[in-house]
Amino acid sequence: MKKIVILIFLFSTTLYAQVGGENIYNFLNLTSSSRQAALGGKVITLIGDINQPIWNPSTINSSIENQLAINYLNYLADISFISASYAHLINRNFGVIHTNISYLNYGNFISADEEGNETGNFKAYDLSFSLGYAYNFEGSDFFLGGNIKFINSVIENFSSYGIGTDFGLLYYNEYSPYVVTLIVRNLGYQVKVYDEIREKLPLDISFGTSYKLENVPITWHFVIDNLQQWDIAVSNPSNETTSIDGEISEEKSSFLDNAFRHISVGAELFPDKGFNLRFGYNFRRSKELFLTDKRTFAGFTAGFGIKLNKLKFNYAFSKYHPATNSSTFSLLVNLN
């Protein structure tokens, strides 16, 4: 019993900074899209991107019909995240459905008992499959979309599965420079629990907008996440202070500091060209991984995209810590 509790804590909370640290299936908030990762990791206003409906189902429309994406993220500690997305047109009246499968492999581990004696090896992974659809309200520029997700998580001989849903409302007009959206992600239920304790899915309510400049080839993206919970600040151990009496004081977060932790921003240069550059900044990641005695550039992201006929290749670099970075690769194919 003690071993499974330790394993669940390790895989469900330590690897991902989450609100409250009490959620299950936290890999659902990890992006495998290179374009999204390069723009700060949270962007939800990418129109015509086959990977975007995983986070915002209201972006599903005919522009992603018959497109395929394969993504690979080389994450922290040699953790691998692989996903594939595809959109299929049912008919012109019904529209397009979107599917995605995501697989997070934690690798191989040495199993040991409570005395530290090795008992063998074990694997751990997370898996999800989603199906999404969006409806365009007749005569308007508003779209309402939803995903249903089937989730499975395995740690050694223990497993859990659940069901999740996402909802999104989008305003999009191809002649307007603005895109505005509101999403609710990871509403759901843990059907089978690990250890008699039913945990919550990592709920996230986010607002996002983008603006395409008229005379400059730049699109700006802005996201406010975790609207369902104001206080998301987690103290950074490197910012602890020690008094002359030896008393340790944790970092205190101000109103403004906590507000900025909800924000991610990104900029895409030459978004409509065959080659484009992307940059982003995640304020929360920067604050939680900041080191007082060394410049880390934590929270900064960057990447590029190349289009060759019906093929697109995207790459993203994300900075976490002086000793840890991640790279994301995406190959997109237009099968039309």
TrEMBL record:
Protein name, entry field: Penicillin-binding protein
Species of the source: Lutibacter maritimus
